[in-house]
């Protein structure tokens, strides 16, 4: 077991001004508290916190973190209390020890919902102080190193938790050594056969290639001497787990793996990295597609290095990583390296935690925590977090060169939301590398993405199933909810204004506040939206506000309704009489003149002589793309190409006939089109609609209506219009009528 002075010396080596008293006090306190407790191995319990502290000294952490490591199991396993630790070591250390005590109880391989909740707690604890994670990972590493002593039935569970949560988390925080060791240890317990098979073959291979490895090392050393680059060359063998994972992922056999051996070239400066790369590439040929420059584009966990693969001196592939000493340390220790590095800097007065807040790894943590507050359900959250933990990243750029890192499978929509929620909400299109591409496109590394925006945009709900980031998903959900609600509440306000006016009252939103309980609604917007959706009738609202008000529709309703009908019939009748009849007569005359055949009545080309031709019930007008459907014994029916009725004929291609309009500019003719108009249900609205139709020079052929909700009526108009332009103009005029809430072409 490490002695007290040995621990102090270790820290002193990298931190000369170490607070010795703090370390000594923590050492003695923890040793006394754990007393004669034993670990499963039979060792004194205190050896465990001491080993955890030792692991953290390898990462050069400050004495507060080392003290926390020594104390991390005291509250949970001994008579120590938070208050006592606060008193002896200060509240900062007390809070960290308590944070770790809470994490001890988390079981991260339990049921999905619980697991999600626990992961949340873990991430929240880490976000408060990243040193909690550093101690937790060191704790887990030591437990994994001594897992043999744990009862068999517990081993697998702990190993799985390590592989699923802690190893990726270490990787995400940039602590590659920690990640690798956790993975190797967990692999041994999760899949012992595979572990042993891979390990054996790897050591065979090392044995056989001993000569080759030193040959390459020597060749690289000579090369750097020639180019006068000061470099340290280290050979490294891939670890069993990463070999196994690669074999699985790429379905390769052991022999097919080309990069089991790698070399690390460590130099003094960034410039030397590129000089070394140049020297290597001019001496040996590089393997295409294997070059990656993580120096100019660091990974999201702050990893920086140049990767390349060359055909080496004995014609074998050699994988190389080129980096500076500083990059090497960050690659090994991640966030921990940052905290150390900055601790010695000019502003080194705070704890490691505060300092590492500006690293990418920490930024990832913050974003993940943010997603927690977006209110996703815990299982979604777990999925998202796991996805973001495990999958590789794609790195994309804004046109201004800002780097946006996204999980693999991300789309331009994810990209837009990653830039800013507002950018996502207003996204209508994307240019990828200068070309307009579908928003569903999967982004690739290095893509430059320009988001095309429109203020009028509301993100379609369907996007939710397309995006892969939690941020985009919850933002889309929120935006669609808001947009729908806004539409309905706007409509509801209009309905109420009119209903109040009709009742001889003046509507104001303030009137609704006192009656919210009576209407069983939580706020004014909610009332408006309910009226807009037709869930709550305007009359009920009036009654709630003015309990004494007599609903005229109850007393005089039937009569008034009849009046409404009568008015409409009048209006419609007039319309039919004047231009309508004339128009239809016109058509018949023209038809007779032009061909005399029965189908000659319709100006359609592509139809042979004597087949009767008619329009589908929903009509078709010049400007529509049309198609004819042949019904044997009956003739040809003309449909607009977008008509849903056509799906009925999908499997009968022989009945589809290519037809085109054959319009003579001088022969003015009208054509049938069917519209559905939804109007606010009040006297006079139908007359108003008929008026709009009349002033726009269209004919009403037939009209049917159905009361669809207390405050709305849907009317189906079969109209006669000149052409598509005419019809569209009419539709937009109808939409502007204040009593109209919706107009759409039926089947067209
Ligand atoms: Mn522990």
From TrEMBL:
Q: Where is the ACT domain?
A: 674-748
Tell me which domain of life the UniProt entry assigns to the organism this sequence originates from. Answer: Bacteria
The reaction(s) annotated as catalysed by this protein in its Swiss-Prot or TrEMBL entry are: GTP + ATP = guanosine 3'-diphosphate 5'-triphosphate + AMP
Report the EC number(s), separated by commas if there are several.
Answer: 2.7.6.5
One Gene Ontology cellular component annotation held by this UniProt entry: plasma membrane
Record-linked InterPro entries: ACT-like_dom_sf (IPR045865), ACT_dom (IPR002912), Beta-grasp_dom_sf (IPR012675), HD/PDEase_dom (IPR003607), HD_domain (IPR006674), NT_sf (IPR043519), RelA/Spo_fam (IPR004811), RelA/SpoT_AH_RIS (IPR045600)
| Residue span, TGS domain | 392-453
Against Pfam families, the record matches this protein to: ACT_4, HD_4, RelA_AH_RIS, RelA_SpoT, TGS
SMART domains annotated for this entry? Answer: HDc, RelA_SpoT
UniProt keywords (A-Z) are: GTP-binding, Nucleotide-binding
Q: Where are the stretches annotated Disordered?
A: 579-603
Q: What Gene Ontology terms describe what this protein does at the molecular function level?
A: GTP binding; GTP diphosphokinase activity; guanosine-3',5'-bis(diphosphate) 3'-diphosphatase activity
Enzyme class, spelled out: transferase
Q: Does the keyword Nucleotide-binding apply?
A: yes
Give the NCBIfam families listed for this entry: spoT_relA
Question: Family assignment?
Answer: Belongs to the relA/spoT family.
Entry function: In eubacteria ppGpp (guanosine 3'-diphosphate 5'-diphosphate) is a mediator of the stringent response that coordinates a variety of cellular activities in response to changes in nutritional abundance.
What is the protein's name according to its record?
Answer: GTP pyrophosphokinase rsh
Upper lineage is: Bacteria, Pseudomonadati, Pseudomonadota, Alphaproteobacteria, Hyphomicrobiales
């Amino acid at each position: 077991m490490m002695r007290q002075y040995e621990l102090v010396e270790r820290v002193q080596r990298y931190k000369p001004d170490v607070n010795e008293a703090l370390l000594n006090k923590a050492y003695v306190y923890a040793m006394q508290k754990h007393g004669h407790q034993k670990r499963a191995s039979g060792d004194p319990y205190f050896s465990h916190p001491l080993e955890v502290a030792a692991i953290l000294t390898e990462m050069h952490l400050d004495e507060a973190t080392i003290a926390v490591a020594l104390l991390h199991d005291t509250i949970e396993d001994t008579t120590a209390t938070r208050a006592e630790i606060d008193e002896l070591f200060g509240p900062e250390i007390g809070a960290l020890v308590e944070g770790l005590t809470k994490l001890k109880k988390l079981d991260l391989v339990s049921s999905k919902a619980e697991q999600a909740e626990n992961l949340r707690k873990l991430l929240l604890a880490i976000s408060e102080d990243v040193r909690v994670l550093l101690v937790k990972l060191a704790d887990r590493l030591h437990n994994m190193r001594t897992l043999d002593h744990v009862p068999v039935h517990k081993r697998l569970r702990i190993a799985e938790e390590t592989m699923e949560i802690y190893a990726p988390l270490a990787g995400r925080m940039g602590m590659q050594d920690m990640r690798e060791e956790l993975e190797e240890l967990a692999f041994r317990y999760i899949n012992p056969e595979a572990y042993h098979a891979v390990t054996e073959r790897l050591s065979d291979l090392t044995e056989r290639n001993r000569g080759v490895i030193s040959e390459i090392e020597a060749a690289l050393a000579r090369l750097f001497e020639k180019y006068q680059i000061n470099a340290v060359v280290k050979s490294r063998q891939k670890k069993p787990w990463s070999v196994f994972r690669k074999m699985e992922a790429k379905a390769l056999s052991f022999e097919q793996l080309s990069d089991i051996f790698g070399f690390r070239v460590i130099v003094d400066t960034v410039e030397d990295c590129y000089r070394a790369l140049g020297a290597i590439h001019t001496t040996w040929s590089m393997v295409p597609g294997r070059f990656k420059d993580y120096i100019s584009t660091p990974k999201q966990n702050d990893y920086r290095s140049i990767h390349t693969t060359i055909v080496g001196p004995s014609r074998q592939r050699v994988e190389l990583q080129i980096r500076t000493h500083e990059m090497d340390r960050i690659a090994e220790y991640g966030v921990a390296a940052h905290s150390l590095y900055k601790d010695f800097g000019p502003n080194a007065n705070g704890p490691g935690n505060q300092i590492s807040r500006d690293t990418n790894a920490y930024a990832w943590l913050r974003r993940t925590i943010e997603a927690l507050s977006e209110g996703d359900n815990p299982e979604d959250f777990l999925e998202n977090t796991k996805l973001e933990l495990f999958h590789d990243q794609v790195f994309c750029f804004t046109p201004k060169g800002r780097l946006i890192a996204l999980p693999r499978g991300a789309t331009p929509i994810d990209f837009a939301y990653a830039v800013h929620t507002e950018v996502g909400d207003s996204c209508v299109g994307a240019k990828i590398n200068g070309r307009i591409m579908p928003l569903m496109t999967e982004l690739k590394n290095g893509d430059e993405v320009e988001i095309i925006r429109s203020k009028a945009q509301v993100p379609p709900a369907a996007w939710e199933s397309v995006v892969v980031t939690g941020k985009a998903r919850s933002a889309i959900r929120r935006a669609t909810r808001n947009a729908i609600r806004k539409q309905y509440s706007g409509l509801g306000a209009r309905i109420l204004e009119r209903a109040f006016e009709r009742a001889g009252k003046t509507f104001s939103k303030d009137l609704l506040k006192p009656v919210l309980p009576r209407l069983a609604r939580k706020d004014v917007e909610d009332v408006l939206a309910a009226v807009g959706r037709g869930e709550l009738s305007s009359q009920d609202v009036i009654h709630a506000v003015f309990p004494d008000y007599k609903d005229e529709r109850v007393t005089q309703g039937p009569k008034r309704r009849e009046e409404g009908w009568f008015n409409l019939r009048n209006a419609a009748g007039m319309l039919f009489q004047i231009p309508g009849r004339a128009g239809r007569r016109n058509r018949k005359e023209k038809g007779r003149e032009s061909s005399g055949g029965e189908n000659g009545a319709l100006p359609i080309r592509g139809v042979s002589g004597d087949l009767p031709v008619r329009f589908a019930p929903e009509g078709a007008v010049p400007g529509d793309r049309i198609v004819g459907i042949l019904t044997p014994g009956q003739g040809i029916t003309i449909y607009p190409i977008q008509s849903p009725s056509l799906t009925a004929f999908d499997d009968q291609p022989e009945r589809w006939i290519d037809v085109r309009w054959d319009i003579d500019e001088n022969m003015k003719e009208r054509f049938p089109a069917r519209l559905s108009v939804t109007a606010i249900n009040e006297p006079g609205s139908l007359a108003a609609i008929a008026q709009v139709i009349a002033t726009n020079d269209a004919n009403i052929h037939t009209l049917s209506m159905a009361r669809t909700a207390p405050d709305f009526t849907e009317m189906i108009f079969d109209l006669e219009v000149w052409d598509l332009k005419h019809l569209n103009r009419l539709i937009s005029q109808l939409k502007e009528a204040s009593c109209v809430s919706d107009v759409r072409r039926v089947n067209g």
